[in-house]
TrEMBL record:
Its cofactor is FAD. One of its GO terms (biological process) is tRNA wobble uridine modification. Pfam families: GIDA (PF01134). Residues 9-381 form the MnmG N-terminal domain. The gene is trmFO. This is Methylenetetrahydrofolate--tRNA-(uracil-5-)-methyltransferase TrmFO. Its main location: cytoplasm. It comes from Bradyrhizobium guangdongense. GO terms for cellular component: cytosol. NCBIfam families: gid_trmFO, PRK05335.1.
Length: 475
């Protein structure tokens, strides 16, 4: 491929995010070199040299664009001419309302499309360390199994010790699903921390009987096992699974993350709680709260069953469940700008799981927008970000600035996230009535709100495409 390096976009990593990024760059009329280290250097999880190989699951989850945030993201990506969605649709296998694919057919479709595109060159071989200095427009999309030399170079450049450890994630709950007739807002001893107001936590009280039952359930709950290639990676300091803490003794948790000191229940001020579960605001919108100290290896079904025994969380709806696994991702709100560029070296743009999104579709969608940004840069232009009301815009907002820092100093609080309606800005006027004029009741309100958010998202995305993108989405 000829041409000045300033006119060429280099994409490192040909997973879902990198493949989608390369496609979007080329579709915009800009030449791209897509670098993939396999098969020269394999990872612990991959089995083939195919591009966009699916390593954990063949499911892209719900395809319901009206009622589900990931289904909405599917629809938005289709409007933007996504190669990943085109390949998924062409290789779909029966899965009810979900979009599941034939893995081999999916990878083959993506590989052929990228191989056949005249503006895409696929270069096999590992990029060891930072890309060459004359690569002025680079997208790094190497995923959670980034090779050690590149991970070390990124760590040194960012001065962030945030790569290749067990990523401990506490469950995150939709604020509106918490029963505030049981729970209350208060910081321990009413302490005002940085950015706080002395009432920065939601507190859920437990009696001794409830606490003992909860600890017993943690101990007996079914856990997931580490993958073979994860077993030698140590726990990140301060992020022990809650069930591991519970195994150290029945009183460990109530002297740790569930300690009741410095808190008074305004619903019952004369009764001292035996233990208290705290939830901390997780995003700037105030729609999501994480359960403090509850990183876990419990299986998802067990988490929902056990955590809904906590008073105030009986009807909790989870934006994401807890987990603990090896991961490689940046502290993106601090390190990346609104266009996914590394502040310390703006020629480097990041995409996919490295940015702090989770899931195949989410990774590909961030690759998609990174590709569009990079193509605009190559043309000497600047592309406006997609509206915050869209699934793509809300996910991008979480990654680049929608997160809030933890109230306690010294702890890292940004965690990967799947797309969910809790990342969207609240509707200015949520629906209150059905089409026939009768009032919405109970779950009907939730359904109507999701449908209204989805309709607004697609309308706003169509307007953004018309206003800002040169290439027709169907190209």
């Amino acid at each position: 491929m000829t041409g000045l390096q300033s006119n060429i976009v280099h994409v490192i990593g040909a997973g879902l995010a990198g493949s989608e990024a390369a496609w979007q760059v080329a579709k915009s009329g800009v030449p791209v070199v897509l670098h993939e280290m396999r098969p020269d250097r394999m990872t612990e999880a991959h089995r083939t040299d195919g591009l966009a190989e699916l390593v954990c699951s063949n499911s892209f989850r719900s395809d319901d664009a009206a009622n589900n945030a990931v289904g909405l993201l599917h629809a938005e990506m289709r409007r933007l001419g996504s190669l990943i969605m085109r390949a998924a649709d062409a290789n779909q296998v029966p899965a009810g309302g979900a979009l599941a694919v034939d893995r081999n057919g999916f990878s083959a479709t993506v590989t052929k499309a990228l191989n056949d595109h005249p503006l895409i060159e696929i270069a096999r071989g590992e990029i060891k360390g930072l890309p060459p200095a004359d690569w002025s427009n680079v997208i790094v999309a190497t995923g959670p199994l980034t090779s050690a030399p590149l991970a070390d170079a990124i760590r040194e450049l960012t001065d962030e010790n945030a790569l290749a450890f067990f990523d401990a994630i506490a469950p995150i709950v939709h604020r509106e699903s918490i029963d505030m007739s049981v729970a209350w807002f208060q910081s321990r001893y009413d302490k005002v921390g940085p950015g706080g107001n002395g009432a920065d936590y939601i507190n859920c009280p437990m009696t001794k009987e409830q606490y003992d039952g909860f600890v017993a359930a943690l101990m007996s709950g079914e856990k997931t096992e580490f993958k073979e290639w994860e077993t030698n990676t140590p726990y990140f300091d301060g992020c022990l699974p809650i069930e591991v803490m519970a195994e150290r003794g029945p009183e460990t948790l109530r002297h740790g993350p569930m300690k009741p000191v410095g808190l008074t229940n305004p619903h019952d001020p004369t009764t001292k709680a035996y233990a208290i579960v705290q939830l901390r605001q997780d995003n700037k919108l105030g729609t999501l709260y994480n359960i403090v100290g509850f990183q876990t290896k419990l299986k998802y079904g067990e988490q929902q069953r056990i955590f809904r025994t906590i008073p105030g969380l009986e009807k909790a709806e989870f934006a994401r469940l807890g987990g603990l696994h090896r991961n490689t991702f940046l502290n993106s709100p601090k390190l990346l700008d609104s266009q996914l560029r590394l502040r310390a070296q703006p020629r480097l743009r990041f995409a996919g799981q490295m940015t702090g999104c989770e899931g195949y579709v989410e990774s590909a969608s961030v690759g998609l927008i990174a590709g569009l940004y990079a193509a605009a840069d190559a043309r000497g232009e600047r592309l406006a970000s997609p509206p915050a009301t869209t699934a793509l815009g809300s996910l991008l907002g979480h990654i680049t600035g929608g997160h809030i820092e933890t109230i306690e100093p010294g702890t890292r609080s940004f965690q990967p996230m799947n797309i969910n309606f809790g990342l969207f800005p609240p509707l200015a006027s949520p629906p209150t009535k059905k089409p026939d004029g009768t009032r919405l009741r109970g779950n009907e309100k939730t359904v109507a709100k999701k449908q209204a958010m989805s309709a607004l998202a697609l309308a706003d995305l169509d307007r953004w495409i018309a206003d800002h993108l040169r290439i027709a989405a169907a190209a």
